[in-house]
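Morning!

This is the sequence you dropped in the shared folder:
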Amino acid sequence: MTEEPGERAAADTPYTTELDTLISKAHTAGEAETMLQRVRMENQVVADACEAVRELSEAGDLSETQMNGLAENLSRLLEQYTKTDLKTEFREYFGERSGEPFDEIIETRLETVKIIANTDAKQGSVFRWHFSDGVKLETETSDEGSRLHYSWNHFRDLYFDALLAENRGEAIADPTPERRGGEEWRDWISEVILDHSETVEHVGPRTEAVRQLRDYISRSVGYTDLAKVSERAGIGIDVDDATQTVADLDADTQLFVPREQITRVCEQTGISSRALQIELDAREVTSDAIAGVSQTTYLDGCRFPYWVVTLRLATPQELVAHPESPAEQLCREQQERREEEATDVGVVADEDDSDGCEGALDGEGDSDEAEGAAEDGDGSAGPSATSDRTDSPEEADSGASESDGGDQADTESVGMQSSLGTNPDGETDE
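The structure's back. Tokens below.
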């Protein structure tokens, strides 16, 4: 089979040359006649591999990926070594050579340590180490709860891997003897952090979720009836006295937030409802009166889930104990519109005397004129009763008998007024 030029060029790199040599030695070790011979031959293969890793790293011809590939290929052929064992052997051998002590590397090359402080409750900080040789490391809380930089073995491995990632190899020796102990190293590295630290605050997703939930509560109206909460998209408030206002409530007052709002907040911030509950518990804004935060009730046969928090989290916009019905709200709005319209025409109403006072006075004047006209009419009755026409006694008797009682009463009234006498002003003369 003919090799392509590109394939031949790739096979001629220092790394591939060493890899082929070591794999060949590993195959030979696997063909040993006795187990003792095989163990000895495998140990020699590992020693040769460690020396190859050191030389390639110092020459800048070995990356971290290549080192891992070498360990993986050899582990498939060597019976007593795993991939992890080989990687450990490479690092330890590299460090045992005449390299610079690791603590001295930190002292001379460390520039800053940025501490990324998470605002979420009970979340550890991330330490970002910046070195003058271009190496950048991150250390944070491990599964055991300790900082990786508090173990010089782990920290040196991180530094070594970072060098390999930059295609640069360097022998790194153990720290100086006075700093190799666990307590001694922790005390020393803590002082280094204090001298080079720069704290940067990071707003965690849990903090953002709490902020959004607090904002929703502060913009919502609180109702004492959960049915109203469901109808009007508000929140519930557990109060005994319906006449209270939000200013009268204490910090332990329970607030009932619809579950759909909790789901919305969690989806927008990319966290689980469990994570939000943990954050609320840590901030002590949940209620001690119930276990957990989730509760459920039924409204008109429909399931209504909600969360219970306290007023320590946020204060609603207002408390409404007896909200208006739709009909009441419509009537109130109509009344308000009428009042606004009356206010808009207030100037015209003042000129027309819309209170009716002048109209009432005008009515009284018209009544006086009517009474005067009536009196004039009565005054004219006298002359009409004493007209120039003279009736005979027979005709007078006949007219009197044919007239009704009302005419007689009018005639008698006129006669009485004539007998008493009336002055022009309408006053009776005594």
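Headline: The two ends are 160 Å apart (CA to CA).

More detail when I'm at my desk.
O.
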